[in-house]
């Protein structure tokens, strides 16, 4: 379903089981039932937000914003990690390089192609669009680069975040 926002997971408070989701699309609320299970898959930020809006969070936080408590679960929305990229590092034994010579220079000057036509930093970029998707943005973006990107372990940046509900609506 395109252009829709999931507002909350519908949870049976007695069974403690999800049975569907409430969705907003074109300004209208809809309920979509689940045959088997509901799997929040909104990433590091939107998945906890969805659980919070559904009443699964520390009860004091939920009561503060007027969301009915379905399940008091203190860990929801805490210690978030968002990994938007990952790196695969490897060593190569080949020390040879391709020389930049007159043939390479002429290939660039005449055809705007060859070794000199790129920056040497990000030579491979793949954008995948889904055939039925109407958005101009690609659905998947893959980018390969070959410069060392992983700092020494002592300098590795780590951060954690906390998410909490400020209102009972998904847009806030």
Summarize this, please?
This protein is of the alpha+beta class. The protein is built from three helices and seven strands, in the order E-E-E-H-E-H-E-H-E-E.
What structural keywords apply?
alpha+beta, two-stranded parallel ribbon, 3 helices, 7 strands
Low-confidence stretches: none
Q: Give the fraction of residues assigned to helices.
A: 10-25%
Largest β sheet strand count, sense and barrel closure = 3 strands, antiparallel
Contiguous helical run count: 3
Task: Tell me what the structure shows.
This protein has 172 residues and is α+β, with helices and mostly antiparallel strands. Among the domains are: 4-72, no CATH class; 102-147, no CATH class. It has helices at residues 43-53, 59-64, 102-111, and strands at residues 4-12, 17-25, 28-33, 56-57, 71-72, 124-128, 140-144. The strands form 3 sheets. Strands 1-2-3 form a 3-stranded antiparallel β-sheet. A hairpin with a 2-residue loop joins strand 2 (17-25) and strand 3. The two termini are 22 Å apart.
Strand-helix topology:
Elements: E1 4-12, E2 17-25, E3 28-33, H1 43-53, E4 56-57, H2 59-64, E5 71-72, H3 102-111, E6 124-128, E7 140-144
């Amino acid at each position: 379903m395109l252009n829709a926002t999931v507002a909350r997971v519908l949870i049976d408070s007695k069974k403690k089981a999800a049975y569907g989701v409430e969705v907003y699309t074109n300004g209208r609320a809809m309920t979509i039932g689940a045959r088997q299970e509901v799997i929040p898959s909104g990433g590091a930020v939107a998945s906890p937000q969805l659980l919070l809006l559904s009443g699964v969070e520390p009860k004091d936080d939920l009561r503060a914003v007027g969301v009915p408590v379905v399940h008091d679960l203190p860990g929801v929305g805490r210690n978030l990690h968002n990994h938007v990229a990952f790196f695969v590092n490897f060593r190569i034994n080949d020390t040879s390089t391709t020389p930049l010579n007159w043939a390479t220079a002429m290939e660039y000057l005449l055809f705007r192609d060859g070794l000199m036509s790129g920056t040497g930093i990000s030579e491979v970029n793949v954008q995948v669009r889904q055939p039925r998707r109407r958005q101009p943005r690609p659905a998947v973006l893959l980018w390969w680069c070959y410069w060392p990107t992983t700092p020494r372990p002592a300098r590795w940046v780590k951060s954690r975040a906390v998410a909490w509900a400020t209102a009972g609506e998904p847009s806030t």
